[in-house]
Write a structure and sequence with these properties.
One of its GO terms (molecular function) is DNA-binding transcription factor activity. By secondary structure, the protein is mainly alpha-helical. It is built from ten helices and no strands. It is elongated and about 60 Å long.
Length: about 200
């Protein structure tokens, strides 16, 4: 049976994901072999296949772990006892901060999503749709309450914001002039300005 941790207690699945993320970010998904991943993680191929059925499963998990965190946080913002404008702004800023915190994951996913199997791609699209629908529901709630303008359809507002988020990995640099929080605040403010009645 595969060991679940290494000498310092790091679980094997986390080691595999860390190694895969590093290699996918540096070399690209298609130019990274399973052998390179297991060597970088210090495990056997058997260990990889014990936890992940394939390299495809690793790619899916790189993105899924970020989306799980973002979904959990969005649900908490959406369910909070606060005005809809505050909940939407918090959610809009948070997706920026969490994307920047996981910039390699985001870059890998958007560069390599087309390598996923049809089944995994369908699953990812369903997970993303769930996130976008929850976000859109906040926009619609504010529009129905008259807090936000309904001149622009909620779907377009959501696509506008997430278009910016999805491109963060192409231009954001940790050593650049803006902190993650500053970028998040600017993009959230732009979104709210676009919704002003």
């Amino acid at each position: 049976m595969a060991r679940t941790t290494d000498g310092d207690g790091t679980p094997v699945p986390q080691r595999l994901l860390a190694a895969a993320t590093r290699l996918f970010a540096d070399r690209g998904y298609d130019r990274t072999s399973v052998q390179e991943i297991v060597e970088a993680a210090g495990v056997t191929k058997g260990a990889l296949y014990h936890y992940f059925g394939s390299k495809d499963d690793l790619l899916h998990e790189v993105y899924a772990r970020m989306l799980r965190v973002q979904q959990e946080r969005l649900d908490a913002f959406a369910d909070a006892d606060a005005p809809v404008e505050r909940r939407l702004r918090d959610a809009a800023a948070d997706v920026v901060v969490t994307t920047i915190a996981n910039l390699d994951d985001a870059a890998i996913f958007f560069r390599s999503m087309h390598h996923l199997s049809p089944e995994k791609l369908k699953q990812v699209r369903a997970e993303r749709r769930r996130y976008h629908e929850r976000f859109r529901a906040l926009v619609e709630e504010g529009q129905e309450a008259g807090v936000f303008s309904s001149a622009t359809p909620a779907d377009l507002v959501v696509d506008y914001h997430f278009g910016s988020v999805h491109h963060l990995s192409t231009w954001y640099r940790p050593d650049g002039p803006l902190t993650p929080r500053q970028v998040a605040d600017h993009l959230a403010d732009l979104l709210l300005r676009a919704l002003r009645p």
